[in-house]
Specification:
The protein has 190 residues and is mainly α. The protein has six helices and no strands. Helix 4 packs across helix 5 and helix 5 runs antiparallel to helix 6.
Length: 190
């Protein structure tokens, strides 16, 4: 017994057999359409991302789309994947959070289409981890600077108190010496 997808793939093969012989036809188990615009496909497949790491997207879900839209949607997925890969590899840990969340939302959609998302997800998670670590360290640095300022201020207050106490001690010491001198003079008179 054949499933719905098997029948549709067979009908695609039949349509391909009836196609004009001048048309370049490429059929694959995961391409539910005929590549009619080969020049566009050549351009897209020449993108750096596909040269460095060839992809094997699964476009069978496009069987649910109108036949005339399938190739365009597939090309759109290829271009969007390439753009997303480039954006992710240009991201830095200090970029806006929204850039990370947008890309994290896209990854499962590419995965559903059969694109390899593991390196993208790994890079995003690594950057987010770095971002979180740096944010934590910056918070600790800020708190430590506040503590250092408080301690420095307290030290300055204590040093001022010590100077004041030392001055009072000196004043008392001078007063004691004056009193001892006066006492000695009084005793000497008697």
């Amino acid at each position: 017994m054949r499933g719905k997808n098997e029948n549709e793939e067979v009908s695609i093969v039949s349509l391909i057999n009836l196609s004009d012989s001048r048309e370049i036809v490429e059929v694959s188990w995961n391409l539910p359409f005929v590549k009619k615009d080969t020049s566009l496909w050549e351009i897209v497949q020449s993108f750096k991302v596909f040269q460095q790491k060839p992809q094997k997207p699964d476009f069978r879900p496009l069987l649910n789309e109108a036949e005339g839209l399938r190739e365009g949607i597939a090309l759109g997925w290829m271009v969007n994947y390439s753009n997303t890969v480039e954006k992710i590899y240009k991201l830095r840990y200090d970029d806006r959070d929204s850039m990370f969340s947008t890309n994290l939302e896209l990854i499962p959609k590419f995965e559903q289409q059969g694109f390899d998302i593991v390196p993208l997800e790994k890079r995003l998670r690594g950057l987010l981890s770095t971002k979180a670590t740096i944010a934590h360290l910056e918070l600790q640095l800020k708190e430590t600077r506040v503590l250092l300022k408080n301690e420095t201020d307290e030290k300055a207050r204590m040093e001022e108190d010590i100077r004041e106490h030392a001055k009072r001690i000196d004043d008392h010491d001078k007063r004691i010496k004056e009193l001892v001198k006066m006492l000695s003079k009084e005793k000497a008179r008697k």
